[in-house]
């Protein structure tokens, strides 16, 4: 806990985002606007969610634990599934995308640190649950993956993919020297021409591809299971830092051991 930021609410721009007073007129209007944005666009972007001084302190805290990042350098298909040997080579599920990303696990975050404090703040959890229309809503119980920090150093990237989880909550903390753009094609999962659209994206076609500007201090609520997305290659000395805050519709939910080993190199 920081003397400058004794509580989570002291970090959040509550004038613009009154998430701790959901019953107020401003709180109700915010929630309604966010719900509509998520419904229509598959994501909800909240720029300047974190106040500038708090953003600097959060970035400093995150940079202090970078030595604890575990790096995953692998390839995967867009669906994050194992390749099927019975399918032809040209099938889109056989196409491999490269990913090189580090992650600082939850148990490596400072116990009384600012990021943990923000993650454990009930008004934030309740607000996100309300935007997503999820009730009840819980923090993820995974000892490594509850809240982690994605680290993209020079050469880091995350290939095109759909998420396994229905939604992802990220906080844009530190912009890299160069690259690291978040690109996505909204809502193509389940369409009749899904395979054709995914194939085009994987071949480098730009039709329908949208790019989200990386603005530090932005909170993003993202429906990654329906929307194919990637992070473009990062270059330069300043890493791209993005905390991932995980929640669930059931209590006590955790990642599989395989997922933990992939992203953090250990099961516990």
Summarize the structure.
With 268 residues, the chain is an alpha+beta fold. Helices cover 24% and strands 24% of the residues.
Description:
- The two termini are 26 Å apart.
- The protein has 268 residues and is α+β, with helices and mostly antiparallel strands.
- The model has no long low-confidence stretch (mean pLDDT 95).
- It is 24% helix and 24% strand.
- It has one domain: Jelly Rolls (Sandwich), CATH 2.60.120.
- The protein is globular.
- Helix 1 crosses helix 4.
- The strands form 3 sheets. Strands 1, 2, 3, 5, 6, 7, 9, 10, 11, 12 and 14 form an 11-stranded antiparallel β-sheet that branches. Strands 4-15 form a two-stranded antiparallel ribbon.
Which key terms come to mind for this protein?
268 residues, alpha+beta, Jelly Rolls, 24% helix
Number of strands: 15
Largest sheet features: 11 strands, antiparallel
Low-confidence stretches: none
The first-level CATH class name: Mainly Beta
| Number of discrete domains | 1
Percent in helix: 10-25%
What is the arithmetic mean of pLDDT? 95
What is the overall number of helices?
6
- Going by helix content, strand content and strand pairing, the class is alpha+beta
Helix-strand pattern: HEHEEHHEEEEEEHEEEEEEH
User: Within the CATH hierarchy, at the fold level, what is the topology?
Assistant: Jelly Rolls
* CATH level-four homologous superfamily name: q2cbj1_9rhob like domain
Beta content comes to 15-25%
Shape type: globular
Whole-angstrom Rg? 18 Å
| CATH arch. level architecture | Sandwich
């Amino acid at each position: 806990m920081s003397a400058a930021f004794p509580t989570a609410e002291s970090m959040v721009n509550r004038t613009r985002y009154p998430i701790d007073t959901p019953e107020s007129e401003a709180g109700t209007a915010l929630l309604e606007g966010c719900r509509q944005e998520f419904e229509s666009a598959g994501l909800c972007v909240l720029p300047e969610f974190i106040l500038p001084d708090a953003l600097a302190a959060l970035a400093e805290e995150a940079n202090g634990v970078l030595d604890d990042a575990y790096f995953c350098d692998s390839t995967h298909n867009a669906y994050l599934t194992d390749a099927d040997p019975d399918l032809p080579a040209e099938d889109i599920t056989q196409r491999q995308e490269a990913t090189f990303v580090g992650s600082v696990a939850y148990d490596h975050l400072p116990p009384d640190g600012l990021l943990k404090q923000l993650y454990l703040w009930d008004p934030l959890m309740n607000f996100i649950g309300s935007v997503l229309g999820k009730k009840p809503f819980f923090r993820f119980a995974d000892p490594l993956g509850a809240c982690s920090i994605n680290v993209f150093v020079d050469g880091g990237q995350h290939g095109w993919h759909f998420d396994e989880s229905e939604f992802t909550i990220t906080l844009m903390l530190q912009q890299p020297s160069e690259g690291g753009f978040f690109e996505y094609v909204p809502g193509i999962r389940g369409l009749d021409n899904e395979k054709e659209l995914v194939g085009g994206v994987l071949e480098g076609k730009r039709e329908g591809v949208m790019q989200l500007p990386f603005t530090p201090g932005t909170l993003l609520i993202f429906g990654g299971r329906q929307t194919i997305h990637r992070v473009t290659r990062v270059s330069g000395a300043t890493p791209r830092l993005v905390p991932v805050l995980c929640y669930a519709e059931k209590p006590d939910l955790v990642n599989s051991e395989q997922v933990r080993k992939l992203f953090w190199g250990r099961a516990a």
